[in-house]
Amino acid sequence: VSWVRHRDIHILTVATYTYTSDQRFQAIHQRSGDSEWTLQIKYTQKRDAGIYECQISTQPHRSFYVNLNVVVPTASILGGPDLHVDKGSMINLTCIIKYSPEPPSYIFWYHFEEVINYNSDRGGVSVITEKGEITTSYLLIQDARPSDTGKYSCSPSNADVASVRVHILNGERPAAMQTGSASRILNHQLLVFSILTNVLSSVLMTAYLKSWIPNYSMDSDRR
What we know:
This protein is of the alpha+beta class. 17% of the residues lie in helices and 40% in strands. The strands form four sheets. A five-stranded antiparallel β-sheet has the order 3-2-1-6-7, with no helix packed on it. A five-stranded mixed β-sheet has the order 9-16-15-11-12, with no helix packed on it. Strands 8-10-14-13 form a four-stranded antiparallel β-sheet, with no helix packed on it. Keywords: Membrane, Transmembrane, Transmembrane helix. This is Ig-like domain-containing protein.
């Protein structure tokens, strides 16, 4: 039995011998019951994804194909890449870790390039982590102040780093936070829709009454 990687038509193993310099690959043979030939790949990487062929040296040859999908854990911080927080309010950064076969063993939070110290003199800094199929880590910073401005990063043990930039506002309202003009446009559109709906309802009602009431007219209705 041989295992072949289709990406580069590379023979990986023949019987229990390995024919690649990548020692992560190994063929395991179990003779108990039905004969089983297993291709083991240690420390799986994204580039290992693809089709693998198990070839049986019979006449004619027989083959069995396996499509290997490698899921890569990802981390992201909600609301990024920029978050605007009012001075004196609470900073709430939420890091989501998905597609992980198991929860990360640890998650470090950084401010700029330094690990955040939850016992620092700054005070009011805490982290809440909920582990599961999707792991969520919350970084909570009370009483936001100008020194809290800057880049924050979430670094799980099993995924790439995710970052966000926090801006502490002192009464400013950047364009990203100005929703008044959008609200006025939406209200105007709703008003126009309401007027058109009323007009259409009036027209339909008049047509309905004319079809059922003889000599009906808008003038007689007003009288």
